[in-house]
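Cross-posting from the chemistry board since nobody answered there.

I work mostly on the small-molecule side, so proteins are not my area. We synthesized 2-acetamido-2-deoxy-beta-D-glucopyranose and want a rough idea of how it might sit in this target. Sequence and SMILES are below. Is it possible to get a predicted 3D structure of the two together?
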Amino acid sequence: MASKCTGAGGGGASRYLVLLLALLMASSCIASPSAAPAPPPAEATIPRSTRPPALILFGDSIVDSGNNNGLTTSMVRCNFAPYGQDFPPGHNATGRFSNGKIVGDILATSMGLKQYVPAYLGTELSDWDLLTGVSFASGGCGFDPLTSELASVLTMDDQLDMFEEYKGKLERIAGAQRAAYIVSTSLYLVVTGSDDLANTYFTTPFRRDYDLESYIQYIVQCATDFIKKLYGMGARRLSIAGAPPIGCMPSQRTLAGGHDRGCVALYNQAAVLYNAALEKEIKLLNGSAELPGSVLKYIDLYTPLLDMMQRPAAYGFEVANLGCCGTGLFEVTLTCNSYTADACRDPSKFLFWDTYHLTETGYNILMAKIIDRYGLW
Ligand SMILES: *[C@@H]1O[C@H](CO)[C@@H](O)[C@H](O)[C@H]1NC(C)=O
Ligand SMILES: *[C@@H]1O[C@H](CO)[C@@H](O)[C@H](O)[C@H]1NC(C)=O
């Protein structure tokens, strides 16, 4: 048997079983037969000048605005101080993995859509919230379903299930025709994959049956499956982010960077290899006969972030190798809390908020560079 890109789901015990099975199984990823792609929308080509009616987010903590709050068995939560201390309305810890706004909020604001992209789960959403876009992302998730299972968070397939439900809500609010138009013209931003490499592959023993090259092939195959499924559900305009320089994350410096906490060269090389394979695949799928009418973008996070890590002073940062929370050496999610770890005095001087996520200032600068390079949509 081969391990597929589709998680088995289920509770704690079955997760454990899944994990055991995953260990026993052979290693190639077979594309699961997905539903036949939906026909292209009536508006066959979307004029580039038309602003997408909604921004819809899939992926991990970079774009999770609180979906994990209800997952009390998971370590990957942050709905408590000091998270959110600089979040504008009420300084709330909403479940965003930073001190303030995150990537989706910043992009939605720049697009002129709205200030904040709410989480789909656990919040009271207005019709307007649904019409202008939500986040299905789950911190700790990966394209590899095992990554989500190890962290007890939502898989990418779980996120697609929620999207299916969301489409039903859109139809009830806006009618079938308008809902189909929103689905086909909205911008979909997908940010995940770094936890597959940083956590599942390099930190846990559970994918040791793969060598790096074959694991990268596997997660790119999972990414491709995800893109095809999302297209099959009606999405056309997809921006898919690559991995950041995971070897220079404060957490990975502490774990594997040796005595002086240098960047872990092997981890960065893995991100570079993964990004090249992912970009190649996205270019093949973009507007192809298999996905007609699709407009796919590969978003390079690696280059701008590496520059910010290597030349922090050029961006106004004083610290780029420690998180702002606590000692900055290991605090992330549950270990970054106001009982044991206070925030640094001035987060705007830190690139990193905790050992894995940027400060709001960091995200603002990163997004400005990305928008400058790729446009808003
Ligand atoms: C945010 O915090 C304020 C109090 O500071 C509270 O009144 C409000 O309900 C909170 N909002 C959310 C979304 O939690
Ligand atoms: C995808 O195709 C569009 C044209 O439809 C092009 O502008 C864009 O650069 C392509 N994306 C990639 C990643 O090659």
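Reply from a structural biologist on the board:
Welcome over. Reading the output above for you: Residues 8-43 have pLDDT under 50 and may be disordered. The two ends are 40 Å apart (CA to CA). Happy to explain the token format if needed.
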